[in-house]
Amino acid sequence: MPPFSSSSRAASLREKQPHVVNSLEAIIYSSRLPNALLFTGNPDTGKKEAAHLFAMSLNCTALHRQVSLDTHKGAFEPCMVCSSCKKILVDMHPDILVIRPEKDKIKIAGIRELYHTLASPPHEATHRMVLVTEAHKMNQEAANALLKILEEPPVGTFFILTAQDLSGLLPTIISRCRHLHFNPTPLGVLNRQLQEITGADPMQIAIAVATADGAMDMAIQLLNQDKNATTDWKSLRKWLIHALFHLVKKQGCTDAAPALFLAQRLTRNTDELKTILTIINIWLRDLMVVSHDPRQVINQDVLADLQALSTILSGKKAVAWIKALHTAEKRILANATPRLALECFFLTLATDSMTP
After folding, report:
1. CB 315: neighbour CB atoms within 10 A?
2. What are phi and psi of 315, to 5 degrees?
3. What is the dihedral of CA 288, 294, 300, 303, to 10 degrees?
4. CA dist list (Å): 117 to 58, 106, 112
5. How many CB atoms lie within 10 A of CB 227?
6. Of 86, 23, 84, which Cα lies nearest the Cα of 50?
7. What confidence score (pLDDT) does residue 8 get?
8. Average pLDDT across the chain, whole number
9. SS3 at position 47
10. Residue 306 burial class via C-beta count within 10 angstroms: exposed 0-12, middle 13-18, buried 19 and up
């Protein structure tokens, strides 16, 4: 959770997800806690932050909190200084239990271990929370085991499940949860927050936020503000876009070397591949829309180059290339060799760029 005060954290989440905060405040105020809540929505929309703030609010021991009787505002603002709040802040509270995927799956062993833990009463919390992150990654056995717990939850314990959507969850699990959907964070909100956090160039922030489609982690990565990152993403993005321009300007050149080199370079580190494919997708999208409405171009720092290329490029090419890239992405997801999939795609760009 970011280093903000209680009120600023709640305010930040309220700005992004007002309907969610209102619902959680009403639950706290009513003292009628559901056995399980289900938070769905894209990554970086505040699901985990909301879960922790909810648990902190329920267990905060401060007596000075003021709650509005009309709006319930204040119910979602823990003090951050009592013993319970401090322990949750540093992930040291014995009654805040988190189940997360291991190697991209939640397996039954983790749910069995949870079952044994829940056999004992909470150590100190009034409301013990079990947070199951990315619940859609439970395998069938784990999902069935969790369902049995949800059918008869232990006294003093509530569950919060997070997932991107409902598609990977058992209908019986969904039916036992109160569902709250987190909307995509407005780009204007993210722009302002990143400006406050990073102080980066406004154009670069706007490009990063739009490229990441509102995903805060990716936007921070693209701005070189991720302290754990080892890649200079600002330089890599600039180089990649330049390479794409160069590739499609070869005017049908039969020299395959540039395309093959580009595929080889971009697949050295497969951990980078998702962001790389996103950058290429956005560049192709810009190439498609630039002649219709330059204001809708995301990569505004290369607007002039995009406009120049669009005047000599067949109008249907960008659409065809987007389809070709999606084919490459599908092949990679189906465990094809990423380098071979991208070689095929880049050769398409290099060899038919100026053909009708």
Report:
1. 10
2. -55, -30
3. 80
4. 21, 17, 9
5. 6
6. 23
7. 67
8. 89
9. helix
10. buried
Residue 180: closest CA among 351, 67, 40 = 40
The arrangement of strands across the sheet holding 36-40 comes to: 96-99, 128-132, 157-163, 36-40, 178-181
Say which DSSP state 81 is in: -
pLDDT for the residue numbered 4: 43
- For residue 44, give both structure tokens: 């970086």
**Any idea what DSSP says for residue 158?**
E
Rounded average pLDDT over 263-291: 95
Phi, psi of 306 (to 5 degrees): -65, -40
| Overall average pLDDT of the 309-314 stretch | 86
Task: Report CA Rg, the chain.
Answer: 24
Residue 170's pLDDT is 96
pTM for the whole structure: 0.72
Please report where in the chains the tokens 């790389």 appear, as a residue: 276
Q: Does 100 have pLDDT greater than 70?
A: yes
- Residue 80, Ramachandran bin (φ over 0: left; ψ between -120 and 50: alpha; else beta): left
Measured CA to CA, the distance from residue 313 to residue 309 in angstroms comes to 6
d(C-alpha 307, C-alpha 137), whole Å: 43
For 185-243, the pLDDT digits (tens) are: 888 888 998 998 889 999 999 999 999 988 888 899 999 998 888 899 999 999 999 99
Residue 182 three-state SS: coil
Separation of alpha carbons 336 and 165, rounded Å: 26
Q: Characterise 343 by phi-psi region: left (phi > 0), alpha (psi -120 to 50), beta (else).
A: alpha
Token pair listed for 324: 């070709």
**What is the structure's pLDDT at 2?**
41
The residue-averaged pLDDT of 18-22 equals 93
Angle at 330 between CA 300 and CA 276, to 5 degrees: 35
Q: Return the SS3 of 106.
A: strand
Dihedral sign for Cα 245, 249, 254, 255, please. negative
How far is the first Cα of the chain from the last one, in angstroms, to the nearest whole number? 52
Q: Which of 4-13, 79-88, 133-142 has the highest mean pLDDT?
A: 133-142
pLDDT for residue 1 is more than 50? no
